[in-house]
């Protein structure tokens, strides 16, 4: 399969012939950005623990009260979306393969402050977010879609082609459709966003123009989880694979059966945040004496045998979920790729352009939060959340963007979400997998 594929270039009066995208190999050379501070999972976790302990000591009884804080008080700290839930929107752009998360909120994030003439979806998947953006922005002239998973991208590409063909057919009747939309898709990890944009238009990669909007959705799609041969599901037996990129060489099976014992334990502790990591580490290494672990079923059975029986089904499922998460992150080097990609994506934004990121677990969200602060401040970010108040702008009562009422100003941009936006209660009822989703948005100065 070609690494990049031009989809449609269309006008509301005539369909232009399909033209191939420039191959990635022909993309212009892009200078490697200067080295920035790294915040891998080990650093983040260690720092968080250290400061949590110091706070507990300093707080005394106050720290105990903080630990006993009721759930409802904790939920107040979440910026749950209060936007009216548009069931019709999800009905139009949701598919059997995947239901897009925080769809209405993503649309709102890119509604202002400028026309969205260029947009990049770094994780196309089934193209739910992409289609909604194209529908909401008839002024869009350039669309670039990326996904490291060729199977997922092929599904999303088909949906985009169908949408654009339908839009072309309606173009003569709809005066709101403006100009020509050039649409490209690339089988590529979003860490290569500069090379991909350079293959489309050199000015986009070197910063002389930049793009108006970029979206990164870090969630696993249903079409990946539900396919047992990918090795992501704890409920289906399949190979211990977990590669997002089928061409990659490292698999979960390699880690479990050949990596050093201490490294296996570090992965479970730091990437899975599994409290029982030492015990599981020993059991995994011990299993090598019996031939090793070679399927997801083998790993799940090991976890089931070692989980406390009193915890029941939910006990082993939660543990297995954390273990599978840890292995998937390690196989795909997700956290390091994420931080580098956030810097590259911000570099590719035009002035006033916005970058939105949807994360699904604390490790990802912590990196997004810290990196956003680094980007607007131009340096290292402090772990202390209270320190953000020094940068906070006054609350803004904006009916169009009610979730952006607390913003953090820096010399290089604005973090529009001091606290991440989480799904509305209506969306959680529709799609339980969205419960842990968090949306953060940054705008370039």
Give structural notes.
Residues 381-399 have a biased composition (Acidic residues). Residues 46-69, 379-399 are annotated as: Disordered. Belongs to the methyltransferase superfamily. RsmH family. Strand 4, helix 7 and strand 5 (181-187) form a beta-alpha-beta unit. The chain is an alpha/beta fold and 445 residues long. Helix 12 packs across helix 13 (277-287) and helix 12 (261-270) crosses helix 15. The protein folds into two domains: 4-28 and 80-223 and 335-444, Rossmann fold (3-Layer(aba) Sandwich), CATH 3.40.50.150; 233-333, Putative methyltransferase TM0872, insert domain (DNA polymerase, domain 1, Orthogonal Bundle). The longest helix has 21 residues, at 150-170. The chain is 42% helix and 13% strand. It is globular, with a radius of gyration of 23 Å. The protein has a nine-stranded mixed β-sheet with strand order 1-5-4-3-6-7-11-9-8, with helices on both faces. Strands 2-10 form a two-stranded parallel sheet. It has 18 helices and eleven strands. The chain has helices at residues 41-59, 61-67, 71-76, 87-93, 103-109, 128-136, 150-170, 193-200, 202-206, 222-225, 252-258, 261-270, 277-287, 296-306, 312-332, 334-347, 362-377, 425-430, and strands at residues 4-10, 79-80, 118-121, 142-147, 181-187, 211-217, 349-359, 408-409, 413-415, 421-422, 438-444.
């Amino acid at each position: 399969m070609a690494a990049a594929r031009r989809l449609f270039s269309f006008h509301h009066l005539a369909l232009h012939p399909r033209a191939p995208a420039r191959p990635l190999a022909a993309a212009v050379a892009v200078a490697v950005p200067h080295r920035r501070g790294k915040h891998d999972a080990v650093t983040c976790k260690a720092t968080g623990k250290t400061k949590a302990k110091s706070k507990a000591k300093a707080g005394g009884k106050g720290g105990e009260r903080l630990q006993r804080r009721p759930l409802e008080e904790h939920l107040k700290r979440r910026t749950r979306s209060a936007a009216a839930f548009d069931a019709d929107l999800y009905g139009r752009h949701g598919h059997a393969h995947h239901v897009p998360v925080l769809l209405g909120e993503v649309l709102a994030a890119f509604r202002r402050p400028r026309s969205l003439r260029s947009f990049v979806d770094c994780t196309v998947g089934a193209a739910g977010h992409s289609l909604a953006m194209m529908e909401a922005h008839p002024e869009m002239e350039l669309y670039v879609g990326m996904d490291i998973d060729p199977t997922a991208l092929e599904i999303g590409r088909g949906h985009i082609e169908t949408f654009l063909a339908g839009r072309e057919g309606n173009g003569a009747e709809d005066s709101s459709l403006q100009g020509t939309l050039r649409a490209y898709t690339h089988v590529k990890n979003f860490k290569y966003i500069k090379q991909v944009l350079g293959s489309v238009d050199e000015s986009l990669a070197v910063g002389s123009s930049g793009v108006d909007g970029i979206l990164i959705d870090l969630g696993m799609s249903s079409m990946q989880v539900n396919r047992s041969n990918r090795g992501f599901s704890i409920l289906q037996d399949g190979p211990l694979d977990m590669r997002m990129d089928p061409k990659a060489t490292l698999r979960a099976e390699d880690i479990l059966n050949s990596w050093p014992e201490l490294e296996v334990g570090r992965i479970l502790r730091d990437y899975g945040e599994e409290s029982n990591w030492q015990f599981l580490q020993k059991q995994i290494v011990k299993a090598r004496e019996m031939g090793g672990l070679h399927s997801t079923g083998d790993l799940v059975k090991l976890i089931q045998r070692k989980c406390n029986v009193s915890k029941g089904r939910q006990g082993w499922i939660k543990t297995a979920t954390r273990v599978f998460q840890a292995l998937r992150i390690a196989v795909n080097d997700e956290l390091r790729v994420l931080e580098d990609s956030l810097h590259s994506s911000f570099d590719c934004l035009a002035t006033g352009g916005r970058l939105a990121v949807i994360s699904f677990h604390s490790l990802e969200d912590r990196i997004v939060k810290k990196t956003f602060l680094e980007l607007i401040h131009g340096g290292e970010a402090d772990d202390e959340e209270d320190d953000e108040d020094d940068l906070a702008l006054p609350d803004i009562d904006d009916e169009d963007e009610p979730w952006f009422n607390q913003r953090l100003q820096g010399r290089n941009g604005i973090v529009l979400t001091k606290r991440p936006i989480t799904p509305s209660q209506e969306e959680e009822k529709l799609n339980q997998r969205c419960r842990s989703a968090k949306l953060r948005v940054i705008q370039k100065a």
